[in-house]
Amino acid sequence: MDIRLIFKKTMAYSLSAGLLMAFFVVIVIAITNFISTFAKVDSFVVSIIAALIIALLFNPLRNKMQTLVDKIFYKKTYDYYSVIQKVSHYLASMFNIKRIYSFVGYTIFSVLGLKHIYILAAVPGGDYKVVYSRTFEKGKDKDKPTEEIIEEESKEIEGMEELKLNKSSWLIKTLSSGGKILIKDELPGVEEVLGQELIDDLEKEFEQFNGEAAVPIIVDDKLEILMVLGGKLSGDLFANEDVRLLDTVSYQTSIAVKNARLYSEKVHSERLASIGMLSGTFAHEIRNPLTSIKTFAQLIPEKYEDIEFRETFSKIVVDEIARIDGLIKDLLSFSGRRAEHPEDFLDLTALVDKTLENVKAKLELEKNNITVEKFYKNVKINVFADKKKLTQAFINIISNGCQSMEDKGVLKVNIIPDGKEVRVTITDTGKGIAPHDINTIFDPFFTTKAMGVGLGLAISKKIIEDHKGRIKVESMLLDGTTFTITLPIQDSQKG
188 to each of 38, 184, 197, 198, 389, how far by Cα in Å? Predict the structure, then answer.
């Protein structure tokens, strides 16, 4: 029987009844005098009206009294259903094991007002190692948002103190077989079931963590995690309501951990599939130039004296090696991290101008009938960016547009400042993109060309997003394509 809970309820009902009785007496006397004087209504009618008012007010007032009793007699109180709803909501979308430990640990610690808490998880070999701990320190994290605390603590898990329990621990064995929450102070009451020797062993293991309760978290019929809780700051014992809360949170945590593992397996599987696709694509693209080089190497002993043969294949070998080199650079550019300090303030207009000059020179050299038209003014627009990377992004997008027009068309470029952002639009008059391909053109290895790996636009998108920008595409078959790149303007550096 939970004496604490009975006391709370009794106090709430008694205070509610007392206040309502006083309110009833005041209402009856006041209204009777008023109505008797002015309306000449029978006092019995007044009593019925007062009784109805009291009946309507009793429940809301009783709830207020309950809260008041909690505040007066108990330092730490909580709404069971609100806590469960919050835990359920957060765990449903949490797939990082470390964040689950941190969130559950911090929630139980703060809601129950504990002196400390430890979470132990099974590790290879069968032992249980501390993966989360928190100890009460006055004033610690007082003004920090809960999300920030959980995020910080989930990153500190690797450095946990070396407290652990081995698989032969009596606490582990008892929690594994029973699956029930153990309260240290309640162990003497089950001496007939457990035996005094086992109780003594369990109490010694509780003392190792200075713990007062142990909560098992069972995943797939196995004890995967356990929480060891210290005493409450208020000095109160764990009530039935607390045990019910811990039981429910334990079950929800079990589901969240299982979901997180399934999600991790799915991500791992997709990563392997991506590696397989990358290997296949890379092997295919490299095999073609290697075949040409191999052929030349095999024929050169026989045709070395043939000058035309040597010249032809010398050119082929250089081109094919350049092709392999370009492929490797694309892969490194796509998968590699950004340099730590490559960025500087630069004029976006000048960068686009320079890029277009290079494109024009290349088009003239290749004798393409593609016209480049600029629709922007020569106004300085400052951005904070890596010049080489941003140039590469624009070259990839512009080259893509030129290739779609083959050897004839118009490439239109515009720069439009818009408040704190600037938009660069690149429009071609090429064959356009099929509707079913629009959502996949930025995917790595997607290409509709006979040659190429399909990394150019994926690299461009990554570069733009690394610069806190956005890129979108609009296209219609046989009616051209428009790429819109949006980047933040550096207001303080604007010229």
Answer: 70, 8, 11, 11, 70
Q: Tell me how crowded residue 245 is: count the other CB atoms within 10 A of its CB.
A: 21
Amino acid at 360: K
Quick one: angle between helices 97-112 and 80-91, nearest 10? 170
* Token reading at 342: 């490559």
**Calpha distance 249→361 (Å, rounded):** 67
CB atoms within 10 A of CB 421: 15
Q: Beta-strand (E) ranges in 292-393?
A: 344-347, 369-374, 382-385
The H-or-E segment that residue 279 falls in is helix 240-303
Give per-residue pLDDT as tens, 268-293. 787 777 666 666 666 766 776 787 77
Rg (CA), the chain: 37
Domain extents for the chain? 3-73, 80-263, 272-335, 344-493
Tokens of 50: 């007062």
What is the dihedral angle through the alpha carbons of 204, 205, 207, 212, rounded to the nearest 10 degrees? -110
Give Cα separations from 27 to 34, 54, 429 (angstroms).
10, 10, 84
80-263 shares its CATH topology with 272-335: no
Query: Could you report the per-residue pLDDT of 209-268, keeping only the tens digit for each?
Result: 899 999 999 998 899 999 999 999 888 889 888 999 999 999 999 999 999 999 888 877
Locate the DSSP E strands across 151-290. Answer: 164-165, 182-183, 213-219, 222-229
The domain defined by 80-263 folds into: Beta-Lactamase (3.30.450)
> Which residues partner with 418 through β-bridges?
421
The predicted model scores a pTM of 0.52
pLDDT digits (tens, 9 = 90+) for 348-394: 999 999 989 888 877 776 677 889 999 998 888 999 998 888 988 89
Choose among 424, 379, 377, 376: nearest CA to 401. Answer: 424
Q: Are 91 and 100 in contact (CB under 8 A)?
A: yes
What's the CATH code, domain 272-335?
A: 1.10.287.130
What's the pLDDT tens digit per position in 105-163? 999 999 999 999 999 999 888 889 999 999 888 767 666 666 777 766 665 555 455 67
What average pLDDT is seen over the chain? 80
Q: What class does CATH assign to 344-493?
A: alpha beta
